[in-house]
Design a protein that fits this description.
Blueprint lengths: L1 E4 L4 H12 L5 E4 L10 H4 L9 E4 L2 E4 L1 H9 L11 H36 L5 H21 L13 H7 L16 H11 L2 H5 L5
Parallel strand pairs: 1-2
Antiparallel strand pairs: 1-3, 3-4
Helix pairs in contact: 1-3, 4-5, 4-6
The structure holds glutathione.
Length: about 200
């Protein structure tokens, strides 16, 4: 299987980490987002949305990182995506929450405090950051509270949900994510960071 992706991006990395954890080989096709390679006519044939990651498995092409994670994890029996309707719904709930809500705060901090500087030498937009801070402090207590008496998000076992929601936290320091008051999130992410599959897929910057 081929993964079109940009390894520094949390969306590519969480897919790579799941594949590594499950010992599923993926051939990486590096798409250099810094050079706009996701917007070329050739790439738009693979994903008309012009975004990475994209998985190609024979004649099946799949974009959206969380869908790719579920597809990969469906290839073999494993605890990341257990064969149980409630566990899967619970994992999917956190994956939807990540894309719909958690991303709004975390994604804006990454973009404004880190990516803009790296790519364009620009400072973050204070208005966007203020808005991101409000959103972040609306959602982080939900995650922190849920983790108060759990090691992992679903059934206290490592699942796809942890890779999805945790994926931004590698950049907590350079993106200046305001995590100070969220002790449970920090402890949970330290557990993710100690996983060989997470460490092995760390972006080489
Ligand atoms: N919801 C999508 C988001 C994908 C996405 O936004 N990818 C970004 C990198 S994080 C991208 O490829 N952007 C390319 C561009 O905008 O040129 C997913 O989870 O896969």
């Amino acid at each position: 299987m081929k993964l079109y992706g940009f390894p520094p991006s949390p969306n590519t990395r969480k897919v790579q980490a799941v594949a590594a954890h499950l010992d599923i080989p993926l051939e990486l096709e590096f798409v250099n987002l810094a050079k706009g390679e996701a917007r070329t006519a050739e790439f738009l044939l693979i994903n008309p949305g012009g975004r990475t990651p994209v998985l190609v498995d024979g004649d099946f092409t799949l974009w959206e990182s969380n869908a790719i994670m579920q597809y990969l994890a469906s290839k073999k029996k494993n605890a990341l995506w257990p064969d149980d309707a409630r566990a899967r719904a619970d994992i999917a709930r956190w994956q939807f929450w990540q894309v719909a809500h958690w991303h709004q705060g975390c994604g804006t901090f990454l973009w404004e405090n880190m990516v803009k500087k790296m790519l364009f030498g620009m400072d973050g937009d204070p208005v966007a950051l203020k808005q991101a801070e409000e959103t972040f402090h609306r959602d982080a207590p939900v995650l922190d509270g849920h983790l108060a008496n759990r090691h992992y998000l679903v059934n206290d076992t490592l699942t796809l949900a942890d890779f999805s929601v945790g994926s931004y936290l590698h950049y907590a320091v350079p993106a200046r994510l305001p995590l100070e008051r969220y002790r449970n999130i920090r402890a949970w992410y330290a557990r993710i960071e100690s996983l060989p599959a997470w460490r092995d897929t760390a972006p080489k910057m």
